[in-house]
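# nightly structure sweep
# worker-07 picked up a monomer target from the shared queue
# config: single-sequence mode, recycle default, output format = structure tokens
# input follows
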Amino acid sequence: MVQTMRLYLVRHGEAEHNVLGVGSSLPEITERHLTERGKDQIRSVAESLKGKPIAAIVSSPLVRTRETAAIISEVIGVPVDIDDRLHETTLGIFNEKSIRLFFDKYPNPEMRISPDREDGVEGFVDMRGRLERFLDDLKWHHAGESVVIVSHGDPLEQLHGILAHESPGIASIGWSPAKGSCTEMTWNGE
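# output follows
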């Protein structure tokens, strides 16, 4: 029997690296915290989730997403689980450098389906593998429930693409979550 899940895809609020224009992925060399604006964005998201029957909050391990999840948790009273599979795109040689360098090399999102291996950048196909495993586990543990997923722009785009049955390339140029946003989706586990 199919049990539909309600998923709330939350992108972390504005963080220090966003303001600085610096790439920030694993390994997290410098902790990049939410800005005051980012905290306000997430307080609004948390208020919009108040009163909904949320069973779980699952977050990426990076500081900005853990802070985002903690704000939501405090408002709705649901504990946070950390799942490494929700981490930001691995930026390889571009981590902790100007994000402009990354986008100069990969101006077209479809170029990131299979990026240059020497750069150490995670491709969308590899990202999808970890996100599909995450969804399989989520379905096993939370079938029929509502779950908040706190992550980053690229992983949320690809997660949305998986749920909408879009290819990695289409997902990378379609829906894109704003910082500090929440998108509600239903998923029947297929």
